[in-house]
């Protein structure tokens, strides 16, 4: 039989869940703000204690709410930060599995491609993908199997925030490590970024390509022409990374032209296949 203390805890949990279920959009935003302030940095056991061993019941509600509202961007940052508290909590692998089982990865990747969603919200999506990728090889594979490399690379090319772009680079670097089944896919995705119109994205792609090349070994034929073009860039930081990039002697022998003659394009789909 449950003790009086346990019964009181269960009653508080049910009351909280009922409040969430009956709350409107404004009230739910308030609940999320309080949840983030109270629970950020807690471990899995601490979350279970907070929710009387029923933390998953709230996580299910959060992920369901995310699936309903993510296309509108409504309180998206708060929802993603709240989910992140569960995913990054120590000793909380089951929360991650529960999130993935309802298609969490696909939702996060879809957020990256939505025009109406704010950059800050997309950055939170990238952070959750980082948490997932850092959990292990099979989770990296899941992201790649979900056409994640294409979505992530395209977002890097279009992002207007250097801080966000650097978060994307961290994710791509994670995906190329310890991911033998899909490391070539990530490598090709990085090459596809080289002709894009964002100098910062080109710089970060070239930096990550050095790491990818050291892991993969063999050089993809298309990299020569792409690196030759970035050497013509008017941006010195891109020229520098281009000179340092993995390349053939043909690339090494040529210096940058004084004026860029190349036209910028978005990441090439053929390199992402």
Itemize the secondary structure elements and their pairings.
Elements: H1 4-22, H2 25-39, H3 44-50, H4 55-69, H5 76-87, H6 93-101, H7 104-112, H8 119-133, H9 137-145, H10 148-158, H11 162-176, H12 183-193, H13 199-216, H14 222-230, H15 236-244, H16 249-252, H17 269-272
Question: Features of this protein?
Answer:
elongated; disordered C terminus; mainly alpha; 273 residues; single chain
Average pLDDT over all residues: 86
Query: Helical content, roughly?
Result: 55-70%
Low-pLDDT runs of 5+ residues are 247-266, 268-273
Give the DSSP E fraction (strand runs of 2 or more residues): under 5%
Structural class: mainly alpha
Estimate the global geometry from the Cα principal axes.
elongated
Number of strands: 0
Number of helices: 17
Largest sheet: none
Please compute the radius of gyration using only Cα atoms. Answer: 22 Å
Q: Order of helices and strands, N to C?
A: HHHHHHHHHHHHHHHHH
N-end to C-end Cα span: 59 Å
């Amino acid at each position: 039989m449950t003790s009086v203390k346990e019964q009181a805890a269960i009653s508080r949990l049910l009351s909280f869940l009922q409040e969430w279920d009956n709350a409107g959009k404004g009230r739910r935003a308030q609940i999320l703000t309080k949840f983030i302030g109270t629970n950020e940095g807690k471990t899995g056991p601490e979350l279970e204690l907070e929710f009387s061993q029923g933390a998953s019941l709230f996580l299910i509600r959060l992920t369901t709410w995310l699936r309903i509202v993510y296309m509108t961007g409504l309180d998206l940052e708060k929802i993603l930060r709240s989910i992140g508290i569960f995913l990054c909590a120590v000793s909380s692998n089951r929360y991650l599995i529960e999130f993935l089982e309802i298609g969490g990865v696909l939702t996060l990747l879809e957020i990256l491609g939505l025009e109406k969603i704010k950059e800050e919200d997309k950055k939170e999506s990238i952070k959750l993908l980082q948490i997932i990728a850092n959990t292990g090889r099979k989770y990296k594979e899941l992201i790649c199997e979900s056409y994640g490399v294409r979505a992530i690379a395209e977002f890097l090319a279009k992002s207007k925030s250097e801080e966000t772009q650097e978060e994307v680079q961290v994710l791509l670097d994670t995906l190329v490590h310890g991911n033998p089944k899909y490391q070539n896919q990530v490598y090709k995705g990085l090459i596809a970024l080289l002709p894009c119109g964002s100098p910062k994205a080109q710089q970060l792609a070239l930096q990550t390509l050095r790491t990818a090349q050291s892991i993969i070994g063999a050089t993809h034929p298309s990299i020569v022409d792409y690196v030759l073009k970035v050497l013509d860039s008017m941006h010195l930081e891109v020229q520098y990374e281009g000179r340092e990039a993995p390349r053939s002697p043909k690339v090494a022998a040529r210096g940058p032209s004084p004026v860029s003659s190349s036209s910028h394009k978005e990441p090439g789909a053929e390199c992402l296949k």
